[in-house]
Amino acid sequence: MSRVCTRALDFELRAGETLLEGLERTGHAVEYQCRSGYCGSCRTTLLEGAVSYQQEPLAFVAAGQILPCCCRPQGDVILDLDAEPVKQQA
């Protein structure tokens, strides 16, 4: 499993989870629309590590950026997310 670090917390990504799914599960508020790499709304800066895409995203992705909606980490990653985790309701 890959370890994901943000400014808010560290967590383990579950098997088969995209980065976006893991961020949502842990309460992070991340912008998204398509979940398929078309729109680029979830564009995030990757500080350390590497990711892969099953299909090359159609949205523009600059060097050092990733689309968490459709990528999977290749090992541990550090993301530059300013969003603080949203408090989960019981």
Tell me what you see in this structure.
By secondary structure, the chain is mainly beta. The protein has a single domain, classed as Ubiquitin-like (UB roll). It has one helix spanning 19-25; strands spanning 3-5, 10-12, 44-48, 51-53, 65-66, 71-73, 77-80. A five-stranded mixed sheet has the order 2-1-7-3-5, with no helix packed on it. Strands 4-6 form a two-stranded antiparallel sheet. Strand 1 (3-5) and strand 2 form a beta hairpin. The model has no long low-confidence stretch (mean pLDDT 89).
Write the layout of secondary structure elements.
Blueprint: E1 3-5, E2 10-12, H1 19-25, E3 44-48, E4 51-53, E5 65-66, E6 71-73, E7 77-80
Parallel strand pairs: 1-7
Antiparallel strand pairs: 1-2, 3-5, 3-7, 4-6
Structure at a glance:
This protein has 90 residues and is mainly beta.
